[in-house]
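[Q] Does anyone have a clean structure-token version of this?
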Amino acid sequence: MNETLSNYPKKPQESLLELQFQESELEKIFEDENFSSEKLIALLEKQYPGVYKQDTDVWEGYTLKQHTLMVMEQFEKYFSDKTLPANINKDNFRLILALHDIGKPEAIAKEGKHFQHKYTQQYIQKLFGELKIDKKHTDLALALTSEDPIGKYIANKANAIDTKTAIENMAIEAGISTEDFFELLCIYYKSDAGSYTENAEGLRSLDDLFEFDEENRKLDFSSRVQNKIDQLGF
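[A] Here you go.
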């Protein structure tokens, strides 16, 4: 059995939402040695019809589906061959990336995109609960999608002290050591922000933040950004 999912018996009153796909369908996608981001998003589109077609309110004009697939493919290209810190299951991390902006369209429609984290966490809480994904991976998903400390810091919207404190608090929320959580957060950020680049077959935007080495499957911060990251002291 794939550790991402468990066939616990479900009582009707415990159900957080009604799944629009079979758990076996999700297992099949994850068990395929040639993992397909497109197949995972297609499955989630059954659960959230119309949502992935929505605009994400970025100047590049990407829909949620376009952006999410670009994020997922950056992870596949640069990180899927590596063991994740803290024994994090790779398929669960893929699911986190697939859902990382799922609440953004609803936030834009109701309160504004600055509330996207709140809405995304609600979606994740419900789906992870219905899939009986364990607390460790649920807590990680909620922590990673709670805010964007690295992005704010790189954009000079937060100083090093406040950023370090924010990341330490997120690690506590995730129940993971600060060192491991920071590494996971960097992978998450590089996959996400690294999608706004020509390397991800998108428009040039955040390209100067990164150095891409496709041959060796390495996605690093540029020297300028890495120097700034080093100041956090992790």
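[Q] Thanks! Anything notable?
[A] Residues 1-15 have pLDDT under 50 and may be disordered.
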